[in-house]
Every structure is written in structure tokens, then in C-alpha cells.
């Protein structure tokens, strides 16, 4: 059960402090505090306060704020100490059982491959092979190993079959009148948002709010909005505030600022120790050959190497994914992941717990399409160590939920249920038609959501979509977009008579624009969303809450310093209006 409010706050603080103590930031703060003792302005009588002021003035307080914000964003709400750890990972017993059974299937597939091919799970490379790999580290894409005998451990369609068979043994829909007959493939009762809750949660996406990737604003020319948005983005980067950056990207990131904004949101900064850690992972790859290395090679060859956008990044993908497989720090995310990292035993020590090791070292077995989580990031980061850090952080925050069974609102089960509910409620005729011809919509959209649309959308549109994932800190936008795609192609889909024909209609998503689809699906039928602002003017524009420039000013006033607020020349009346703008209700 959840702890009482006061106890919960105390537990949260205690957990965050404990995690930060084991972080590199804690060591850096201690080092800076010791160095400050040589500062003549530090007095013995006010030592504690002087050191605090020194750290604040030198920017370390902001870094601490960002680290705390990261912890709050990632980890679940604290529970009573009496709650077992497995309940924190996943509160529903039948979900835990389903995940455990799925893991057994994956391990069986991996072990069978190991036995059939006569290849050990891990072995040290000969010195000659180590030298060869080191020399071609930046040209691994030119290698053509024989991978014909290797096969992906599983594909998204295999995972979907498992989710389709999920059932809550304590829930009988035939006896409960408040659970309407669900015609989709997902038959478990989970609490997902309805269309009204989605409109409220994604309110900044409405038709009257300016977006970076929409050219036709009714209030202000696109060029002006873009220049104002870029200007504000530069100020957000100057402030180095993760929370402000996260709010900012809800309206999309300018291409020139996206890499820095995402790094700020994810609290990633390339320190010398981070680069050294990456080099240690690289050294481990050079020394040891794992069976999963061949699975990674195979996946890259089958997916990214055949993609018109991503084939040029083949070398980067090998470097990042091979290092990722060796990174034991990834194991930390299993504290809030319903999955359990697989274990193996040192040869000759089978069954002896003291010789058990996690395999692969990061606990993540790659599946078909896994490399597509990394590929889009190659457009933003050309430094391998920075690219690696960004991918690892996005994975342990978001993408692990796309291939594990859980009841989390961003988990793949909830996303599938949300997608089916949206189609049934918004497009019931289309849903029923596709169901009747044997073309269940989820069978088509599942692969999109599992890959977070990577490899399906044009890269610029995909990055705009991932802006919103980071900005709203949820994967629910994937289900909304999947439903919006079906709505956009509804006319053609109503004419198909088979699953193959439906798949053909939805085979190419590369020409779609993400934001117009999302806006129309969520808000086009709501007449109140189309209302225009009226009244006085702010900086020469309407003060209506829907005005993009007005919203930029509102955002700026809330998140940036008082000096910059004054620089805008906004009077107290306008400030009062801004504070009550619907755009900011979620933050006041």
C-alpha cells in the first residue's frame, strides 16, 4: 500500500538522498566543498552557510536540483517498508506470473540456440581477434559475419500473442455490468485514460497552441513563432533547468537545440568519468565475445542497415549496443521494472548460487527491432560516448516498458488497451469492420508502438514525437498516434476486405505529419478548443490563452528569472492574466 502523505514525503526524501549518495554527483559535490575551503571568503564561524552559497554561486545547486528531478521522474512513489520488493516492481500478481513465464520462454529460446550452434554464452576472444576488433572498431559495418544460423530470440508478433492471452483470474467480465464488452485483443481490466482525460493531460497540444512542427498558426506567422520559440529555448538552456526544458519541448524542439535540450532533460553531461566508463565498456567488448553480440549484429543487419534513413549509422549502432550489453549499471532499472534479469552460471558450477551471474551483464536480451531504439539518436549525437549515455537513459526511463509485461500506464499492455479503447470509442464502425474481416487493428499497430514508431515515421517526425515523450514523461502518446493513424486512413480502411489489404493501406507512414494527426484526433471535434483569444494585447498580440507568443511569455515568466521577466516589459495586469492562463494550470 502507499504510505501516508507525511510518511510518503519522508520516504521519498530518504530514498532520493540514499540514491544520490551513491552517485558521481555526490563525490563531485564533496570535492567542490573541500576545494571551497581554500577560498578566503569561507569563514569558520559560518562554514556551512558559506559552503552552501559557494556551491550555489558556482552552479552546483542547479545540478543538484536536476539530479533530484531525475530521481522523482524515474522512480515509483514510495511505499510502506512492509511492502515486498516484487510488489514495487509490479503490484498485480497475474502480471508478475505472466512476465516470469515470458522470461522462461525467452531463456529457453536462447539456450536452445546456444546448444544447437554449439556456441558458449560467453568466451574470451583470442589476442589476434581482440587486435582485429580494436582496429576496425569504427568500421564494424564493413564486417560480413555469417549470421545465417542465428535467429532473433523473439519478434514483436510473438510478444503480442502472449499479451492477447493475458487474463486476470479474479475478474469475470460476464458478471460485471460496468465493464462493457471489449471487442479487442487485450482482455485485462486496467485503468487507462479516456479521451477527455487525454485532452486534459495533453492540453498544450490543442489546436490553438503553437507547435514547432506546424506551419499554419491562426494567430501568428510560423516564422515569428519559430524565432520566438528558438529564443526561449536558448534561455532555457542558459538556465540549465531540467524541469523547464521538459516543459519547453512539449511544443517541439528546434532542430538546432534538440540535442542539448534532451541532454538537459535527461540530466546527461559528458564528464571525463563518463567517457572513461564508456571506454571501459568498449574494452570489455574487445576482450569478450558474447552470444548476444551475434543477435545484435543480426538485428542491425535486418533492420537499420536496410533503412533508408539509418543505414549510414551502422557503425555507431554496433558500438552503442555492444557496450550497452556489458553495462551493469542498467541492472538498477530492474528495481522498478516488472522483469527480472536472467542469470547464468559459471561453467561447471551449475546450480551454485555463489557462481551465478547476470547474462547478459546488463540483463537485457535484445529482440528483433531493438536497434531501432538507438538509430534515430544518431542524427543528434555524433560522439559515441554521449550517444551511448543518451540512449541508456532513454531506455531505462521509457523504452524498457515497451517489451515487458506490467500494469504501468506507460507499459505496453496499457498502451495496447488505450489504443483499442480509443478506436472503439471514436471510430466504432471502423473498429467493428476491421474486426469482422479478421484485421484486428492491434495486430497492425502493435509493431509501431513496440518500436516507438522508429523505422516507420520520417526521422524529423519521429523526433517531434519523441519530444513529446520526454516533455510529458509518458509513452501514452504512442497509443494516441497509432489511433490517429487509423482515423486518418479510415476511408480506405472501410473498403478493405482482408488483413493483408488493411496492412497494405497502412504499410507506409513515412509521409505522415505527427502533430496535425494528434491535434485533429484529440481536439478537432471539441468546439471549445477552436475558440480564439480576445481582449487586450500583450507585446502586440492577443492576450488569449491560445496565442502562441502569449504562451511563450507565460512560460518565460514562470520558469525564468525575475530579471528576464522584467526585460519583457509585462505589467502586473498582464502578469496576473498569464498566471491564470489555462496553459499554466498544471504548474500553478
Automatic annotation (TrEMBL):
<feature type="domain" description="Rab-GAP TBC">
    <location>
        <begin position="252"/>
        <end position="473"/>
    </location>
</feature>
<dbReference type="InterPro" id="IPR042507">
    <property type="entry name" value="TBC1D19"/>
</dbReference>
<dbReference type="InterPro" id="IPR035969">
    <property type="entry name" value="Rab-GAP_TBC_sf"/>
</dbReference>
<dbReference type="Pfam" id="PF00566">
    <property type="entry name" value="RabGAP-TBC"/>
</dbReference>
<dbReference type="InterPro" id="IPR000195">
    <property type="entry name" value="Rab-GAP-TBC_dom"/>
</dbReference>
<protein>
    <submittedName>
        <fullName>TBC1 domain family member 19</fullName>
    </submittedName>
</protein>
Amino acid at each position: 500500500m502507499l504510505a501516508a502523505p507525511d510518511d510518503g514525503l519522508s520516504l521519498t526524501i530518504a530514498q532520493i538522498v540514499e540514491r544520490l549518495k551513491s552517485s558521481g554527483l555526490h563525490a563531485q559535490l564533496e570535492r567542490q566543498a573541500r576545494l571551497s575551503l581554500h577560498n578566503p571568503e569561507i569563514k569558520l564561524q559560518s562554514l556551512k552557510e558559506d559552503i552552501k552559497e559557494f556551491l550555489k554561486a558556482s552552479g552546483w545547486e542547479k545540478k543538484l536540483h536536476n539530479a533530484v528531478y531525475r530521481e522523482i521522474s524515474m522512480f515509483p512513489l514510495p511505499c510502506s517498508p512492509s511492502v515486498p520488493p516484487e510488489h514495487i516492481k509490479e503490484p498485480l500478481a497475474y502480471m508478475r506470473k505472466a512476465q516470469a513465464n515470458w522470461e522462461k520462454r525467452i531463456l529457453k529460446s536462447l539456450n536452445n540456440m546456444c546448444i544447437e550452434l554449439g556456441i558458449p554464452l560467453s568466451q574470451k576472444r583470442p589476442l589476434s581477434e581482440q587486435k582485429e576488433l580494436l582496429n576496425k572498431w569504427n568500421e564494424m559495418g564493413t564486417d560480413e559475419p555469417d549470421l545465417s544460423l542465428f535467429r532473433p530470440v523473439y519478434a514483436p508478433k510473438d510478444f503480442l500473442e502472449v499479451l492477447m492471452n493475458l487474463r486476470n483470474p479474479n475478474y469475470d467480465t460476464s458478471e460485471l455490468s460496468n465493464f462493457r464488452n471489449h471487442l479487442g485483443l487485450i482482455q485485462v481490466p486496467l485503468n487507462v485514460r479516456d479521451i477527455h482525460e487525454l485532452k486534459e493531460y495533453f492540453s498544450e497540444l490543442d489546436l490553438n497552441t503553437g507547435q514547432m512542427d506546424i506551419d499554419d498558426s491562426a494567430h501568428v506567422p510560423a516564422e515569428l513563432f519559430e524565432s520566438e520559440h528558438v529564443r526561449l529555448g536558448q534561455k532555457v538552456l542558459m538556465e540549465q533547468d531540467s524541469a523547464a526544458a521538459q516543459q519547453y519541448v512539449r511544443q517541439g524542439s528546434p532542430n538546432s537545440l534538440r540535442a542539448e535540450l534532451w541532454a538537459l532533460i535527461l540530466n546527461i553531461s559528458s564528464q571525463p568519468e563518463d567517457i572513461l566508463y564508456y571506454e571501459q565498456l568498449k574494452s570489455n567488448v574487445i576482450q569478450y565475445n558474447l552470444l548476444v553480440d551475434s543477435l545484435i549484429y543480426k538485428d542491425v543487419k535486418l533492420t537499420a542497415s536496410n533503412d533508408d534513413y539509418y543505414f549510414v549509422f551502422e557503425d555507431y549502432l554496433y558500438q552503442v549496443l555492444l557496450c550497452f550489453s556489458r553495462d551493469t549499471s542498467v541492472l538498477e532499472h530492474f528495481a522498478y521494472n516488472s522483469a527480472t534479469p536472467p542469470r547464468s552460471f559459471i561453467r561447471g558450477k551449475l546450480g551454485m548460487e555463489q557462481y551465478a551471474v547476470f547474462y547478459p551483464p546488463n540483463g537485457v536480451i535484445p529482440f528483433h527491432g531493438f536497434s531501432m531504439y538507438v538509430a534515430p539518436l544518431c542524427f543528434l549525437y555524433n560522439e559515441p560516448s554521449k550517444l551511448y549515455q543518451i540512449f541508456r537513459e532513454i531506455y531505462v526511463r521509457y523504452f524498457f516498458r515497451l517489451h515487458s509485461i506490467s500494469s504501468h500506464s506507460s507499459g505496453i499492455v496499457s498502451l495496447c488497451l488505450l489504443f483499442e479503447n480509443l478506436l472503439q470509442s471514436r471510430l466504432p464502425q471502423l473498429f467493428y469492420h476491421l474486426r469482422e474481416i479478421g484485421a484486428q487493428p492491434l495486430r497492425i499497430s502493435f509493431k509501431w508502438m513496440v518500436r516507438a514508431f522508429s523505422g516507420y515515421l520520417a526521422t524529423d517526425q519521429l523526433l517531434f514525437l519523441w519530444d513529446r515523450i520526454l516533455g510529458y514523461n509518458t509513452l501514452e502518446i504512442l497509443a494516441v498516434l497509432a489511433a490517429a493513424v487509423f482515423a486518418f486512413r479510415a476511408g480506405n480502411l472501410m473498403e478493405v476486405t482482408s488483413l493483408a489489404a488493411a496492412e497494405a493501406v497502412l504499410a507506409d507512414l513515412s509521409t505522415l505529419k505527427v502533430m496535425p494527426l494528434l491535434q485533429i484526433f484529440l481536439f478537432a471535434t471539441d468546439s471549445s478548443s477552436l475558440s480564439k483569444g480576445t481582449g487586450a494585447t500583450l507585446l502586440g498580440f492577443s492576450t488569449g490563452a491560445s496565442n502562441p507568443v502569449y504562451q511563450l511569455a507565460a512560460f518565460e515568466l514562470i520558469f525564468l528569472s525575475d530579471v528576464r521577466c522584467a526585460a519583457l516589459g509585462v505589467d502586473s495586469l498582464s502578469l496576473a492574466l498569464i498566471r491564470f492562463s489555462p496553459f499554466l494550470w498544471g504548474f500553478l
